[in-house]
Amino acid sequence: MKELIREFVESRNTGLVGVSKSGKKFGFYAMNELNKRGFEVFPVHNEITEMEGVAFYKSIEEISGLTKNLVIIVNPSKTESIIVDAANAGIKNIWIQQGAESPAAIEKGKQLGLNVVHGKCILMYSEPVKGFHKFHKVIADFFDKS
Length: 146
Prior knowledge:
With 146 residues, the protein is an alpha/beta fold. The chain has helices spanning 2-10, 26-36, 76-88, 103-111, 131-143; strands at residues 13-17, 40-44, 50-51, 54-55, 69-72, 93-97, 115-120.
């Protein structure tokens, strides 16, 4: 999985599904934080066109020519269908944020031939890592022998 993580974050661009309309949940924080770290983020939400100066895309299909990566930060009950949409749009690399994963979604990604990262926080691996994410990364790397 370490190689998948490295390839994902080195590309420096990604789609992101999971920004709430309120802008007060982790998806919004992650989008802003990835932007601050130099990523080009293509947020997807079927009801948001723009938030705080960031343009949104209505569907995963709309970002298919812009990136091969997608971060998913939603309720686990929605993750599997998002993975199917991503595969249909040609997205190959999926990062299922901690809390968004389900065994069925992970298995579906593998069945569809996608590269799936799960059980990890995107902000722990997107340089420059700082604050508590840096501390968590040190601990995770110590115990991760993959």
